[in-house]
Amino acid sequence: MASTDRTAKIRIVCLHGFSCNSAIYRFQTARLRKRWAEHLRQHPLVAATSSASPSSTSSSRAASPGLDDPWQRSNTQYYYDSDEESSSAATTTSSSSSSVDLAASISSRSSISFGSDYPPPPSYSSGSSGGNSGGIVVYNDVEFIFLESPREVSAPEQPLAEVASLFPGPYRTWFEPSTTTTTTTTTTTRRTAETAKPDDGSRARRRDPAIERWVVEQVKRAGGVHGVLAFSDGAALTTALTLKAEAGVAACPKLWDFVVLACGVDPYPDPWLHGSGSNGGIADGEAKEVEEEAKCLARLKTPGLHIVGLRDEVYRDRSEALWGLVHPQAAAAAADRDEKGMNAASGMAAEVYRFDDGHKVPVQDTDLDAILSAWRRVVVRSGLFRDASPDEVVAASRVLAV
């Protein structure tokens, strides 16, 4: 456990879903993030324990959040709207680098283009080449770091299509469309991302190792990240990286101490990529990689909160499957016992909250209150709250009987 001397800022990475971008995700998560930040203002965290802790260079950002770091200054725009406020350090900078209105920030960022070969993140001295950070939002001295995928999609799909006029593209995805082949005893069916129904929950696509490496490098550069707030496919990417870190994969160190996965998608296996009980759709050269990744399937051990939409017609089954990565028996028992509300399986350091809506981040006060309570229990289990009492630690660690 890291020293209880709070030498690092509170940093939470935010990863958007499919056919989205950081501006849309900021809009989707605004109310939830504000609740967290208000709570953290009164209940600070200790320094993050991830292996991507800030170096002596990045530690200087504790005094002046991000603004003294050349990478942050060159590749990150700071956005604030009426519901968000900058830290005192940020407000002392010029408006051209730290405070632009939401519409202008969207327009400016939308003009950025990325190379098709997904180069590594830019050096500290470079400008807008390579990858991109979607912006840092500061609430009450808490940094929400929005990363935006280098991979573009042509247009947002439902339910995001309805906000396209408010949030211009480009729109992003963490995954690449893949042409897959599934073989049965009677027929061979070729399915492509173009022919798949857009909202059937089984869209053909596969993870991009280059993008995964890019995200790892971005988080390491940020330094001192406590947790991640991820939605839909962003939750799948988060889970993949977290499982790899837990499995000791050298290329993926521990990046964060807790995860919040909203309407998430299970990353292993993708039925359209892997086929049914076979290597259907996997090239021979990829078989070994898939076999190695299967070792990560043991269980997700990092403290986490899973948020599942009861009326999510797209991904509810896969969100439940993602929750099942924590502890299958506990997940099944919790679902049977309480279809809506908080269910804990703290033996595996995780909780699940099911809310009465679809594929979205909850915005209702009752849901946000419950999520805040569950999130605090998760962070208490991670050992990061400085003011957690022994009784609270015990209460947060009760194991669900199954």
From TrEMBL:
* Ranges annotated as spanning the membrane: none
Positions with biased composition (Low complexity)? 47-65, 179-190
What keywords appear on the UniProt entry? Hydrolase
The Gene Ontology CC terms held by the record are: cytoplasm; nucleus
Q: Which residues form a coiled coil?
A: none
**Residue spans of biased composition, Basic and acidic residues class:** 191-207
- Extract the ranges annotated as region (Disordered): 47-74, 111-130, 175-207
Protein name from the UniProt record:
Serine hydrolase domain-containing protein
Q: Which residues form the Serine hydrolase domain?
A: 141-365
- Which Pfam families would you find in this protein's record? FSH1
Q: Which InterPro entries does the entry link to?
A: AB_hydrolase_fold, FSH-like_dom, LovG
Tell me the Gene3D superfamilies matching this sequence.
Answer: alpha/beta hydrolase
Q: State the species of origin.
A: Lasiodiplodia hormozganensis
**Classification of source organism:** Eukaryota, Fungi, Dikarya, Ascomycota, Pezizomycotina
Q: A Gene Ontology molecular-function term?
A: hydrolase activity
Asked whether the keyword Protein biosynthesis is assigned, the reply is no
